[in-house]
């Protein structure tokens, strides 16, 4: 792995150059338009979307808008209902991409539909709870430890790792970096903030 590629890896795992604003939106929210790629985020089982604030900040600091849905308030619905809710919001966003709202979608022509690839990357020493903020409020957080795995170390390294991998993937398929960041991570996973094993993928 060339030194320049390694330096590229460290940039996606670090906070990006953009300032971040977090807004709670219950209905249509108007604001000056911003032409950015949009990530629709689904929280984990029995979680709240606000538990992932630091993870959102990392992705957004690299120039992506993150829309974090709250899929339910108490009792989790079926997986089918979760997908239906997500579809409804995605269609709503797409229908309003030309309006002056806080979320504007950017079509990317040939890169709009990613090729059928498979990526399998595991942070060996961590669990889902380690992507969350440190000590989120609320009873759902207290109960979530019974449902999901957690590691022993600090959470920030995993948040930076997951955020960096997602940023690299989005850049590869929504922007024109030709997958430089993603290829660097796949080629030298030892430079990630946490241990990654296995790191597997299928070529197109």
The SSE string, one letter per element, is: HEHEHEHHHE
Number of helical regions: 6
- Number of DSSP E strands: 4
Distance between the termini: 21 Å
The percentage of residues in β strands lies in: 5-15%
**What's the main sheet like?**
2 strands, parallel
Helix content percent band: 25-40%
Category from helices, strands and their pairing: alpha+beta
Question: Number of folding domains?
Answer: 1
Please describe the structure with a list of short key phrases separated by commas or semicolons:
204 residues; alpha+beta; two-stranded parallel ribbon; two-stranded antiparallel ribbon; 4 strands; 34% helix; 10% strand; Chlorophyllase-like
What can you see in these coordinates?
The chain is 34% helix and 10% strand. The chain has 204 residues and is an alpha+beta fold. The protein has one domain (3-201). The chain has a two-stranded parallel sheet with strand order 1-2. The chain has a two-stranded antiparallel ribbon with strand order 3-4. α1 crosses α5, α2 (53-60) crosses α5 (156-174) and α5 packs across α6. The protein starts with a helix and ends with a strand. The model is unreliable at 99-113 (pLDDT under 50). Pfam families: Chlorophyllase.
Question: What's a concise summary of this model?
Answer:
It contains 6 helices and 4 strands, in the order H-E-H-E-H-E-H-H-H-E.
Topology (SSEs and partners):
Elements: H1 3-13, E1 38-42, H2 53-60, E2 65-69, H3 79-95, E3 119-123, H4 139-144, H5 156-174, H6 180-187, E4 196-201
Parallel strand pairs: 1-2
Antiparallel strand pairs: 3-4
Helix pairs in contact: 1-5, 1-6, 2-5, 5-6
InterPro entries: Chlorophyllase-like
